[in-house]
Amino acid sequence: MSGFQRYKKILDLFSEERSFWTVLEISKSLKTPSSTIYRIVREMVTAEFLESASGSYFRLGPAFIKFNRIINFSDPLVRAGQPFLKKLANENPITSVNVLARLYGNNVMCVADYKSPTFKKNTSYQRGKLMPLIYGATSRAIIMQITGKRLENLINLENFKSDEDKTNFLKELKNDRKKGYCFTEGQVDKGLIGFAVSISNKKLGIVASLSSIFNLDDFLLEHEPIIYANLTTYGLLVEKYINEIFDDIQKYHHETNSMR
Amino acid sequence: MSGFQRYKKILDLFSEERSFWTVLEISKSLKTPSSTIYRIVREMVTAEFLESASGSYFRLGPAFIKFNRIINFSDPLVRAGQPFLKKLANENPITSVNVLARLYGNNVMCVADYKSPTFKKNTSYQRGKLMPLIYGATSRAIIMQITGKRLENLINLENFKSDEDKTNFLKELKNDRKKGYCFTEGQVDKGLIGFAVSISNKKLGIVASLSSIFNLDDFLLEHEPIIYANLTTYGLLVEKYINEIFDDIQKYHHETNSMR
DNA sequence: AAAAGAATTATCATATTATGATAATTAGTA
DNA sequence: TACTAATTATCATAATATGATAATTCTTTT
After folding, report:
1. Which end of chain B is more exposed for a tag (fewer CB within 10 A), N or C?
2. Is the pLDDT of residue B33 over 60?
3. DSSP state at residue B180
4. Contact between chains at B203 and A66 (C-beta distance less than 8 A)
5. Which residues from A are below 8 Å from B129, CB to CB?
6. Closest CB from B60, B129, B204 relative to A67
7. Per the CB < 8 Å rule, is B62 touching A102?
């Protein structure tokens, strides 16, 4: 183990289900002597990436909250898209969850969400949560932007039941790419349906989507055109704002860099 | 520079105001050759603690969103307190911002907040934001739990205008400690007032506070007893739940550790 | 399409740092 | 108080990071 990996491996042990670890547990789990782990953990506590509780337990530290906040207030995708989620919810014909998601490594991650106050069911789409790559409209509108070898690599990581399933998926992907939007039913949460459009920004390396999720029971066919119109309109708006934000950033850097 | 510091120093460059950095900018700023920075940045991109955009810019990576989410869903303080913030807001006699905050290094950090929908003004208390240690009721209810050398060290980091100011502050602290709650006016945001109670859990090393912030203009003297009653009641409830959560965690560890 | 320039990665000898077994200390508990 | 568990210190050795430079790749311009 070397470099940043040394620290990452420890952080990766912490999960929602298991958020407290003792040094001995870490040591066993990583098959590394406890004297080494003690030293590393101490470093990370100093840096506030870990925090110690009594009973010799350690948990994730407040640094993550701090940096998360910085991202939240400065990430172009979040900044550009967040304000529209509520509007989208209000203009949708039925109660909805609205989600901004992006490619995150080999997964899709939700980066912002807004649920209508009247939406009762719990959904799998919540900020920070990793989502499966091949299920749900939210993910589809992301993966359909990817082509060639990159797509192949991503797809090969997934466990399709059969080769037929895989071929079907790729066919659907192609279709949706042409249409410019996606629809899926119950792929992530039972009883829910999703609609999504792609969002991207080449300069910023953003591969993302904007989606609305509804209760199947609430949905009528006549809602469809309105839903697509809303998503398309706001999707374009979000892209426009991302561009503007990036331009501002570049301008700022040119100014400050030329000041010396 | 060695160990985790090497990585931390780079991360610490990123802020809300300046969220994009090029390798060259980092290299200049840290007075370290760019070949070294390139290597380190690449490592962090792999670990998803940094992310590259085009134009050779880098920004904070999605790992922070992921770990933040884990904290959000597993931190005993947040888990115990978050659900009460809305209730507190609803039961307060006037529109309010309600905040859970905790000691974070030498600062106070807000870890959860709920604003009444009718509360219009922007406040400085938002999740993840660092707050001054000696201003505002939210911070006061935290620092008043600290005594002895620890308190002295913390206080000495602050710039009091005069020794008199410092003595006064310590006197007020003592008073509030006796009373069991705090009140301040306009110390953090003009036109706002704050009420706070302490929250702590020795086992978990939690030194925190629960507070309600109001518009000075809305406030009448007759509101005061209700506000204190609410804060006290919910403060105790939060502490009770923190305890229960910790007991669950311990039970879980005993079980899984004895399984081998 | 070629060329120039910028960004990024590779190389490698050397300096620095991490490792882990063990001992020493400290904190927690009965 | 004494006992046990947790944490820190020590240190020789193995492993790794560093940074100057060269090589490569990516972008932009003509």
Report:
1. C
2. yes
3. T
4. no
5. 69
6. B60
7. yes
> Which CA distances in Å does A47 have to A60, A69, A210, B19?
11, 17, 35, 20
Residue A151 confidence (pLDDT) above 90 = no
Number of Cα atoms under 13 Å in the Cβ half of residue B223: 20
Give the residues across from B178 on adjacent strands: none
- CATH class of this structure's domain A3-65: mainly alpha
pLDDT the model gives residue A148: 76
In chain B, residues with a C-beta closer than 8 Å to the C-beta of A59 are 71, 74-75
CB-to-strand D under 7 Å, chain A 8-47: 22-24, 34-35, 38, 42
* Distance from C-alpha of A118 to C-alpha of A134, rounded to nearest angstrom: 29
Interface test with chain A among B13, B52, B64, B242, by most A beta carbons within 10 Å = B64
Question: CATH 3.60.21.70: does it fit domain B4-65?
Answer: no
> What distance in Å separates residue B54's CA from the closest CA in chain A?
5
| Mean pLDDT, range A159-180, rounded to an integer | 89
Sign of CA dihedral A156, A159, A163, A166: negative
First and final C-alpha spacing in chain A: 41
Helices B63-74, A63-74: crossing angle, 10 deg rounding: 120
Q: Which residues, in sequence order, are CB contacts of B45 under 8 Å at separation 6+?
A: B51, B52, B58, B61
A6 touches strand C (CB under 7 A): yes
The pLDDT of residue B256 is 64
- Per CA to C1' distance, which residue is closest to D7? A38
Superfamily of domain A75-252: GAF domain (3.30.450.40)
Question: What long-range pairs does B41-44 form, CB within 8 A, spacing at least 24?
Answer: B41/B10, B43/A3, B43/A4, B43/A5, B43/B7, B44/A4, B44/B7, B44/B10, B44/B11
Chain B contacts in chain A segment 139-168 (CB below 8 A): none
Task: Provide the residue ranges of all domains of chain A, joining segments of one domain with +.
Answer: 3-65, 75-252
